[in-house]
Amino acid sequence: MKVNVNEIPKDGLFLEETSTGKDLNLQRKDLEFNEPVKIKAAVNRGYGNVLIHLGVEARGEFSCSRCLERGYYSVKKEIDIIKPLSEGKVVDITEIARDEIILDYPIKLLCKADCRGLCAKCGKNLNKGQCSCFNEHDFSKGIKID
């Protein structure tokens, strides 16, 4: 969605686009956007500026960094952006939307904030219950060394 600044009418423009995570280059090795990414923008020309009200909605699928269970990551945000006209005569709304999604990426993708992960010894998912190695994980008594 590229907008030529000189072609923005006095009433402004309303643009809508549905794209894929692959087209927007959003994919990470640990996060896949397989559902459509929705972008909506109201674009107006101000005094020496382009005013953009941007709405972005995307949903990705990932494997939890701690327990490897599948989880979903959602982005739904609205922001206002002011671009000076001196930056060029064409504004790429799609690139701005892509950047906003990437800025929201968490450092670690977790299924839930208090994910307990996998047992380092037997590999059991500790979110689903304790494993037989439980006493070795009791950190209040110190770490057991074999």
Task: Name a few traits of the molecule.
single chain; 146 residues; mainly beta; five-stranded antiparallel sheet; two-stranded antiparallel ribbon; 1 helix; 7 strands; 8% helix; 37% strand
Descriptive account of the structure:
With 146 residues, the chain is mainly beta. The chain has two domains: 2-114, no CATH class; 116-146, no CATH class. 8% of the residues lie in helices and 37% in strands. It has one helix and seven strands. The protein has one helix spanning 93-103; strands at 2-4, 13-19, 31-32, 37-45, 49-63, 70-84, 90-92. Strands 2, 3, 4, 5 and 6 form a five-stranded antiparallel beta sheet that branches. β5 and β6 form a beta hairpin. The N and C termini lie far apart (61 Å).
